[in-house]
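Entry 14: structure prediction run for Endonuclease. Input pasted below.
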Amino acid sequence: GKISDRERHLGGSYGVVAQRTDIGDRLLQLCSDNLLFLENTNFKHKEKHLLTWRPPNSSQRWTQIDHIAISHRWRGSIEDCRSFWSTCLDSDHALVRARICLRLTGRRKDPARKPLRALLNDSQAKSIFQEQLGKQLGSHVCDAYPDAAWNGIRKAVETAVISASKVNQKVREQHWISAASIALIDARKLIPPGSEHNEERSQLKCKLTRSLRND
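Run finished. Output tokens:
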């Protein structure tokens, strides 16, 4: 049967008007327990595109008993849902189809690592690189096997570069608005409304503009 206003979180308002049975109540209870939504009651179509079952007795009314239920989380990804009768299937049930459009966020790109020459222009990063390289090299240079010695040197340089890169990364992740600017923003919010405080607001605005430029 058609979904009532109290059950609107379980389906739309375009279901077929019919006598609800115990199976229909159990379906709605299943949707309620598992946070599901009946999508083919949520789109306005002609009645023949809502009906899903043709009873064997011609005196009985066609009705809607086949549904597509989807999690509330993905409810917005369904663009359309309807039933099809003109198919090659020899069945008293219609084919119910839903059109889905998924919008997935792309994988975040790793920030490009700076070349070693540009990285070592920073004195702090250069100092960390030299320190880590000395620790990582150890005895690899004196290894009797050239391949083993080369692999050890390569890993030592990679580890030292990663350690030095973290210095610039921490600086880059800092907030660009300083604490002084935030304090001026909060102070401006505390000024009461009214034209008599326009001068005070104007002075704070000038101070805030200068502070943001310095940031």
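Notes: The two ends are 63 Å apart (CA to CA). Will compare against the previous run tomorrow.
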